[in-house]
Amino acid sequence: MTKTGISLEMIYDARRMLRDVARLTPIISAPSINENMYIKAENLQLTGSFKLRGAFYKISRLTAEERARGIIACSAGNHAQGVALSATRMGVKSIICMPAGAPLSKVEATEGYGGKVILVPGVYDDAYAHAKELAEKEGYTFVHPFDDDSIIAGQGTIGLEILDQMPDVEAVVVPIGGGGLISGVAYAIKSIKPECKVYGVQAKGAPGMLSAVKNGRVEALESVSTIADGIAVKRPGDLTFEYCRRYVDGLVTVSEGEIASAILTLMEANKTVSEGAGAAAVAAVMFDKLDLQNKKVVSIVSGGNIDVNILSRVITKGLVKTGRLSAFSTCIPDKPGQLMNLLDIIGKSGANIMSIDHNREDQQGGVDTAVVNAVLETRSMTHAEEISAALIEAGYELL
């Protein structure tokens, strides 16, 4: 047992408690992403994310008196659903503080599982502060989303499953927000198969754990900004920091475009829906952020609760990142037939015109020219570059 309190026996106990609650999620081959790539599909877990595991195990270990007081939690959405469902199954009252900007789908799902939702202005950390305040004021039992050994042990059951399902795994890639998931997974895997590498992935706009490990101390970021709302955490946990420093082999970040591309690829190639946080680990493998050559790799797709209202924007960002949606602007003489000449070049290139705007009043144009803005459906980044080259060769200046 480490000084922080977790043990392998505790993770096995969590697996026993979760046997009739959590699904054994599949490991699925993803050769279109990487030849030796597999995904652990926690997006198919009950409530749509791994968070059910830690929440249920934590609440199952509470005393009768702690349950009687009712429980309170804070969450960007997935922990909220796990706590609400677990509490309802055990006949316990649950109150969940969520950021006001949390996806409506996650808010409604939490209420559907029996939790009372309080929306708090700001991000996850603001919801956390309000939940702690209410816990002290009203006497509720606080259930932390990641910085708690029982929560970490529950998430660690994923590590046990990966080793059972794929004993020859050589590397596991895990998304990180507060650090509960990677702490449990890394502890379980390193305790049983220490030669297996465990890597963590954060959004470039929310690198709290990466900064903590680099600087040797936990500090809150001034702000976070990412489409991966499930890992948009300003301050990682103190316990999880210790686990990451001790058991994780490396940490990297991925951009918004890379996350969006991973979401798109998972949808197209693997027919699976992932939220931003869930796709972060896949993005790290897709864009070669880690040295995984010839290694059998499992990336954890931690959740699939993406807000449908932003899904189209995410898909568009992914199409742009991979060169399948391209845009250009150019000036043409304001004379009959000039637009047709431009469109003829595009048509012969094999691109599909998604939208086009011919504007005589654009400030970038002259008195006798018009500015054309076009959005094209292209096959790849190379195809888009070929179209640009063809236009330049024909005498067009790309703005």
Would you write up a description of this structure?
This protein is of the alpha/beta class and 399 residues long. The protein has 15 helices and 13 strands. The strands form 3 sheets. Strands 1-2-10-7-8-9 form a 6-stranded mixed beta sheet, with helices on both faces. It has a 4-stranded parallel beta sheet with strand order 5-4-3-6, with helices on both faces. A 3-stranded antiparallel beta sheet has the order 11-13-12. The radius of gyration is 24 Å and the shape is elongated. The mean pLDDT is 92.
What labels describe this entry?
399 residues; alpha/beta; Rossmann fold; Alpha-Beta Plaits; 2 domains; 4-stranded parallel beta sheet; elongated
Average pLDDT, all residues: 92
* Portion in beta strands: 15-25%
Order of helices and strands: HEEHHEHEHEHEHEHEHHEHHEHEHEEH
Q: What Rg is obtained from the alpha carbons, in whole angstroms?
A: 24 Å
- Tell me the count of domains: 2
By CATH, the architecture of the largest domain is named: 3-Layer(aba) Sandwich
How many E strands?
Answer: 13
Please give the alpha-carbon distance between the first and last residues.
62 Å
CATH topology of the largest domain: Rossmann fold
Estimated helix fraction:
40-55%
Unreliable sequence segments: none
Name of the top-level CATH class of the largest domain: Alpha Beta
